[in-house]
Amino acid sequence: MKKIKAVIIICMLVLAGCYYDKEELLYPAGACDTANVSYTNSVLPALQNYGCIGCHSGTTPSGNISLGSYADVKTAALNGKLYGSINHMSGYSPMPKGGNKMNVCTISKIKAWIDDGALNN
Question: How many Å apart are CA 102 and CA 96, to the nearest integer?
Answer without folding.
Answer: 8
